[in-house]
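Hi there. Long-time user, first ticket. I'm pasting a complex I've been working with (about 1066 residues overall). I'd like to know whether the download I got is complete or cut off, because the file seemed smaller than I expected. Thanks.
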Amino acid sequence: SALAMSSAATTPPSVDKVDGFSRKSVRKAKQKRSQSSSQFRSQGKPIELTPLPLLKDVSAQEQPELFLKKLQQCCAVFDFMDTLSDLKMKEYKRSTLNELVDYVTVSRGYLTEQAYPEVVKMVSYNIFRTLPPSDSNEFDPEEDEPTLEASWPHLQLVYEFFIRFLESQEFQPSIAKKYIDQKFVLQLLELFDSEDPRERDYLKTVLHRIYGKFLGLRAFIRKQINNIFLRFVYETEHFNGVAELLEILGSIINGFALPLKAEHKQFLVKVLIPLHTVRSLSLFHAQLAYCIVQFLEKDPALTEPVIRGLLKFWPKTCSQKEVMFLGELEEILDVIEPTQFVKIQEPLFRQISKCVSSPHFQVAERALYYWNNEYIMSLIEENSNVILPIMFTSLYRISKEHWNPAIVALVYNVLKAFMEMNSTLFDELTSTYKSDRQREKKKEKEREELWKRLEDLELKRSLQSDGIIPT
Amino acid sequence: MAGADSDDSLYPIAVLIDELRNEDVQLRLNSIKKLSTIALALGVERTRTELLPFLTDTIYDEDEVLLALAEQLGNFTMLVGGPEYVHCLLPPLESLATVEETVVRDKAVESLRKISHEHSPVDLEVHFEPLVKRLASGDWFTSRTSACGLFSVCYPRVSSTVKAEIRQHFRTLCSDDTPMVRRAAASKLGEFAKVLELEYVKSDIISLFTALASDEQDSVRLLAVEAGVSIATLLPQEDLEALVMPTLRQAAEDKSWRVRYMVADKFSDLQKAVGPEITKNDLVPAFQNLLKDCEAEVRAAAANKVKEFCENLPEDSRETIIMTHILPCVKELVSDTNQHVKSALASVIMGLSTILGKDNTIEHLLPLFLAQLKDECPEVRLNIISNLDCVNEVIGIRQLSQSLLPAIVELAEDAKWRVRLAIIEYMPLLAGQLGVEFFDEKLNSLCMAWLVDHVYAIREAATCNLMKLVEKFGAEWAQNTIVPKVLGMANDPNYLHRMTTLFCINALSEVCGQEITTKHMLPVVFKMSNDQVANVRFNVAKSLQKIGPVLDSNCLQTEVKPVLEKLASDQDMDVKYFAQEAISGRIKKMKRNRK
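Hi, the file is complete. Here it is re-exported in full:
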């Protein structure tokens, strides 16, 4: 909002004489490009910071004290939407932050116990803020540019400083845990909703370091991520940092001890799998699939619930998502154990048979590519007596009627492969194809018949209860 | 149901259950949607003993199927044998109330709420309340979330011991570990408070409200705002200040804009709930702050409430408060940097004139209206235009038009066609109140100019506008002022303008009557049947069909018919088609007349 103010001041009101149905991207271009947090409630007087000497210019004994003073100065937060205010002081804070970054990287013996609360305070003052409203109710990740954080020149250095601090050799988690606590982590996690990808990238590193160094916070972090995801899936469908959080989880899952705890399995089935239902899946699907496969490599017995979950949430109308699901399924099949495959093959291939006959050629094509995968082929071959009858009807039909010649060609190859695999069954299915169809039609008719009779009955009873015909 | 026994045997449950188990989701869905038919076929006994257990056991299905099931079960009371047996429906609904998908769960809760009323007080304690308790202490957040919506329906009808338990469960959920559950509890807090005895509202609800309103998550805090409004309506005036106001004041200044937005959004309800004294002392400054909030979203929400807030101010101090506290903020919002804020204001600002009366409106509001009428954002201009009538009532049309006319003339030529359209739609009203003379002098030329607008929708609206004007000013006026101009356009080099003549004739013939139509319009239409553009010619055919009813049958036979016949042999396919349509349409009509 504050930016709208500055742009209104610099650009003249738009004079468009033509009636416009301009493209969204064109319209958007006029809108704000960057934004600031909504923390500047009352722009008070200008901020005055008294310049301090450089740390390298004072004696080693004086350094810790000066370090604290500089941290305190950096708690002052500037309004970056107002590009003209406090220019000198903004520059002073920038150079001080730069100095602090260098200082924690190279110095030794600077980290006194008193420094910890001051560092955390400075970081908190700068990064924790209410994120501003976003335009993203119509945000299209394919077309729209993310809105960038205006105060990035300072914010970046604060993040940089904090990471160096966490990574410093002198850093002692046992002292820091008094200040980097659950409340701190909670606020940190909320920032992952930032629209600025640069900020989310830094946050990812910060959270990863905290997860690595603070054992006591691990369960809490996982639980809060759980909550963020559940809210994302079931309440808002909006959270910008899902991909980043999943990326961190990918490495966390990698480190889970075996056997997996019930809590972790629940996370897989009740949180990760439902994440597939979200509209914006494409924004984090790669990271999500990675997490899923990590789980399955840890514990193959989870294959069945995972695949059943995917089948339950299989996209009904969005072909683009269907292609993603097929891709993920192939990744899973790549690592599946034959014993697990047998457990799930029937529902799985019923779905694949539907995909293969999808009128959307990209879906059909993606499913048919499974037959190029040697490992999957070997699994199919071992179980052809089960899979072939499931697939046959679809394949046979498409080979006759799909509109896309490339699909028809692929289907011929698949049919040929099946024929070579199990020619007896193949011939049998071919010869009974017609009679099977007729049997299906007959069943269909019987069903209609049944419902018709039931409806008649219902009608009769309602007439009876209305007293129109005698009981 | 004695006579139904023989029918029942026709439909063994196995067949029906087979349908419910079909591999095809669509078929399962169809069967579930006809679950009442199945139950009817089975009869109440077998529905209870066979169908319901089956449904309870097979709850793992597609969410779409579950949703249909949850809905059906809410209407199943008679199918299981009436209120006496309604508790049989609880097990499947309990499972549905624990599933992940929100829509399914919500529907299950809705159905549970519905059938709760059909339970006898005893059954409510024996069957329903234990279910609520089980849900409230479920492992996974979904069941606890569902439980939140069930407390208020059973509380009023159970014994005081059970009531105490229910209050305890609700308290626990308000401080649940997961924010999802706290959100659910916060959103049901107001409804629960309403069924509680006042002493418990004061002792229990207030502390829960205070805690939720200072939750660490803003998504919880913002839901507490609405609850706060409900609670405020329940408390006696003297308790409000101590029990709810501190929390509400804090919400109005919350650091999260979402919470402040919620306060702005609920402001009118809040105002009604707390009464005039608190409004004067607390809400007025709070409202000022919201109108000046740093986030545009909050300002827009507050701007939307300006009229309602002012309307509901206590009468004795209303004008003073508006003039000294609200109007200065409103003036600033008129030139806000954000168009949503301005547009929200524009949609209500005109309503202030009735509250402030004529003199204040002219002195203070008119300049604001004029500024918004000239706003660069079309939505703002539109909102002002479409509310002109409420100002009209206060200051009179003459005053209004004198000050607004220049702006209206400017908008009549606005670059955005939707704005022009809105102005056109306002014309008949303006014309009716200004009278013929004023209209002819100031607005007539505008109305004619729209007929040659480059956007079809505007030309179409302009045509319709002419018809409404003639309805107001009469046929004679039409003949003298607009008909000549309309007919003149028949010679325009642009065929779109020539067609506009035809469209005008279509619209005007009936209101102008037979004489004008036959004497003045018809010859022009005939002449246009020789137009070189086929679109004009087939529109001639359509026009002739349209104005046919106004003409006498002699004229139709001797003049119209030959022209149509000529067009029916036109070389252009479309012209032929529409001419034939017109001829057959005419014949049908004549036949009908003969009968």
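A couple of notes from our side: The mean pLDDT of chain B is 87. Chain B touches chain A at residues 2-4, 7, 10-11, 15, 19, 23, 27, 34, 36-38, 40-41, 62, 100-102, 140-141, 178-180, 183, 216, 218-219, 255-257, 294-297, 337-338, 376, 415-417, 455 (CB under 8 Å).
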